[in-house]
Every structure is written in structure tokens, then in C-alpha cells.
From TrEMBL, chain A:
UniProt keyword annotation of Repeat present: yes
Superkingdom, taxonomy of origin: Eukaryota
Name of the protein this chain belongs to: Guanine nucleotide-binding protein subunit beta
WD repeats: 62-103, 153-195, 201-243, 245-286, 340-380
Keywords of this entry: Repeat, Transducer, WD repeat
GO biological process, one term: signal transduction
Family: Belongs to the WD repeat G protein beta family.
Family annotation (SMART domains): WD40
Function text: Guanine nucleotide-binding proteins (G proteins) are involved as modulators or transducers in various transmembrane signaling systems. The beta and gamma chains are required for the GTPase activity, for replacement of GDP by GTP, and for G protein-effector interaction.
Subunit structure as annotated in this protein's UniProt entry: G proteins are composed of 3 units, alpha, beta and gamma. Interacts with the gamma subunits RGG1 and RGG2.
Gene Ontology cellular component terms for the protein in this record: plasma membrane
Alphabetized Pfam families for the sequence: WD40_Gbeta
TrEMBL record, chain B:
InterPro entries per record: G-protein_gamma-like_dom, GG1/2
Pfam families with a match to the protein in the record: G-gamma
Subcellular location(s) of the protein: Cell membrane
Protein name: G protein gamma domain-containing protein
Any one cellular-component term (Gene Ontology): plasma membrane
Source organism of this protein record: Zizania palustris (Northern wild rice)
Amino acid sequence: MASVAELKDNHAKATAEVNSLRERLRKRRQMLLDTDVERYSKAQGRAPVSFNPTDLVCCRTLQGHSGKVYSLDWTPEKNWIVSASQDGRLIVWNALTSQKTHAIKLHCPWVMTCAFAPNGQSVACGGLDSACSIFNLNSQADRDGNLPVSRMLTGHKGYVSSCQYVPDQETHLITSSGDQTCILWDVTTAQRISIFGGEFPSGHTGDVLSLSINSSNTNMFVSGSCDATVRLWDTRIASRAVRTYHGHEGDINSVKFFPDSQRFGTGSDDGTCRLFDMRTGHQLQVYSREPDRNDNELPTVTSIAFSISGRLLFAGYSNGDCYVWDTLLAEVVLNLGTLQNSHEGRISCLGLSSDGSALCTGSWDKNLKIWAFSGHRKIV
Amino acid sequence: MRGEANGGEQRHLHDAEEEEEVEEQRQRTQRAARPSSDPQQQRRSAPAPGAAMRNGGYVGKHRLSAAIARLDQELQSLQAELSELESMEPASTACQEVISSTEGKPDPLLPITSGPENASWERWFQRVRSSRSNKWWASKGSDFS
């Protein structure tokens, strides 16, 4: 092997080459950004979505957690929601009746994420125990009224930040972790099928905080990280990320595919949401708040979701705001955080029902709220 | 908290050399991971630059070789991306696709949307028989508690 001095020299040369190439790449990309969605839409003469003050209302408040709500997920069918809280419990709600159908006490109370299985029969959760626990909702509770864990997915070397079942596969689930990797699991055998990142060079270089699986092509998913990038993965090729998306200047707390499955949105500690084109890597739009003269710090984006057409982008912020962005015109058309009956704390999570008729928000105020359109709807 | 143990606030990696320090830090980060009262304080991002160099300057031969191999792979990947950009369409193409994709899809949360309307969209405002209570939610337009 070459001497340390020679190796250091080679390392320095390779580093310089990489930096130079990155800069060329950045400039070339900049040249291709001939417009963004906002400018393009305005050039077409489009008007922003216009809401009356009472169009979107809070029609349910789900009370029951005794700690901050950290995560929520809807069932694909029915109107059920599972939520995870600092109180160390998962609660399954019938969102229509507000009833709690299950309250699951967790072995490890430090839960960060939860998800419903596609058939609505199981829920998954994960957190500081670095594992993902699966509960079958039909199983019998023990003497203390607790549901047994039906599977434990262990293998991550850091906290589990997010989990999602693969939409058309009951038995597959993907997790993201503070160990900088994502893992695809076979739930029935509790085995790891693939690890994305880790020792491979194109993996994330910071904690992975969020993930979103492409519903049109479930072999593809994106992950958002503390390294300020999003990476696109093909579950059939774990050895390297398909693409890395740059632009954000802080941790990416939330990532969600756009309804057309060709784009995805992000929400970050840098206070912005962005829209990226999956195939080309272009950053198509930045959604930035107006700086508040009174605010010392820009509120961070904790979670995002798109309405079913993609025209609306819902973004929860650390200061309790829940902006409704017109995705095309990049304008805030409503703030659910200032409406009547809004949350009294940070919005930590949000999600749309499968038919897009309701938005559920979860907050550090310990509640979940359901929002729906109650105004006059015009059909064109 | 992010990178605070290393005294830095490194949020975004611009420099490949800084990324190599991440390799050094990764093992230390994983060893040091411990639960805190709020799991949301667990996250860590890339540490301050030059941390390993500051620690006396010794970097093993094997680590250097591995780092060079990673940089070479990164070079190949960047070169592939650069040639991809030669024939890539500009952002305007994708912008048009974004606009088109939002049209023609019925969206229950929009005040103006294409049809068909689905009656089940109104279920949030209809009377619901609950076995535990007689709660029901008033018709559209009313305030709710």
C-alpha cells in the first residue's frame, strides 16, 4: 500500500476534483431552471385558490392522548386513524365517530412514528428503541388489556423516525432511521430484505427523518434527512441511491410524493417547503414564509401533505401555524392555525384521508383535529 | 441536538472533505447515541468540518484508502449526472406537467373543483349514530366544538 503521505495527497486531489465537478453540476442545473411553477402559472394567467373564512372547518377534535402527538396515519379504507404520542401509547380512532377503538400501551414509550397496514388490520410503530413493533388489531388483549406485539423488526442502529407499509404489499414495510439508513422489511419473517445507505457511498450522511413511497411505482421511495438532501431509492437496487436532490438548507423533516407520482414535496428546518421533479432532479418551486418582524427565528416546517389533486399543499409549522399553500401560485391561501378551534401548539404531523375529503392534524397540544370543507362547492 | 456536541452547526455539506469527516464521526455518533426525554432531540446532522484533523491529524491508511475509493465512486456518479444534464429538458417542461396534473381531478377540499362530486365527501357533516352517545354534527356551515 502507498504511504500515508501519498494517500493523503491522492485524497486531496480526489476531493478537489469532486468539489470542482459538483460546482459544474450546480451551474449546469441552474441553467436548466428557466422558470418555476409560480412564474409559469402566473404567465398562464391563473388565479389563486380563494377560500371564504368558513370554508375549511375543524369538524372533530380527537381527545385522549396525555402527551404530545408525534405521528398519525389514516387507513386506506374506512375512516380510521392511528396516532402515536409522547404518552407512550398508540390510539386507533374512528375519525367519523371520534371513538377510540384501540389504545395500545407500548413497551418503549419513546415512540416517534406509526403507520396503518394496507388492510387496516395491523399497525406499526417505532422510536427510540431502534425497532419497529407490529400489532395485530384483531389479537386478544392480555390480562392488563394490552395488545401483544405480533412482530418486532430489529436491526436499526439508531432511532426509527418514520415507517410506512408498501401500499400494495401487506408484508413489506420501509423504515427510516437515525442510523442514516432506510430498511425494507418482510413483516411476516421480521427479516431485513434490503438496507439503503449505511456503508454505501451514496447513502445519507445524516439521520434520516422521513420517507414516502411512490404509490404508482411502489419500487421507488424517497427519504429526507438531516444532511439536507432527499434521496430516491429503487428497492430492487439497494447499493446506491438513484438520485440525490439538493436545495434545502436544513434538516428535511417531511417528504411526500405529489399525487401525480412524478414529483415530491419536502418540508424543512430551513422554514421552506419545496417541490422537486423526481426524474430530472429539478427544484421546481420553493414555498417560503414571509419573515415576521417579531419572530426571532423562522418557524420550521414539521410536516406536509398534498390535497388529492395536488392543488393544495398543507404545511405544519413549529409555531402552530398550518399553512394551506396554493401549490401552483405559491401563495398561502389559508392558515388553519388561526381559525376557530385550531390547535394550541406545534403541528407535528398531518395527513389526508384516502378520498381526500378530510385532513387530520396532530399537535403537541395532545389533540388530533379533523378538517373538512363545509362551504359552498362549485363543480366545473 | 444537531452537531452541538462537536461545537459546530454544520447543516449543509458543500465540501467533499467535510463529508469524509462524517465517516469519522459516524461511528462516534452511533456509539454516543442515548435516549433523551424528547425523542425529537435525537437527530444529528453532519458535524463541524475537520474534526478528525483537529484530533491530532492521524488518519489511518485503511481509512484513507476507503475514503479515496468513495470519492472515486462519487466522481463517476457526478460525471454520469453531468452527461445526463446535457440532454435534460429544462424545468419549464416539468412545470407544465405539474399544472396539468392538478386539473381534472375532483378535490373535495377545493371550493371550485371538477366533478363528479361524491356524496360521501359530506359524511363529516352528517348525523352519525354512535353507540356511546347521541353526538351529531350540525349541517354544513355551522361552527363546531
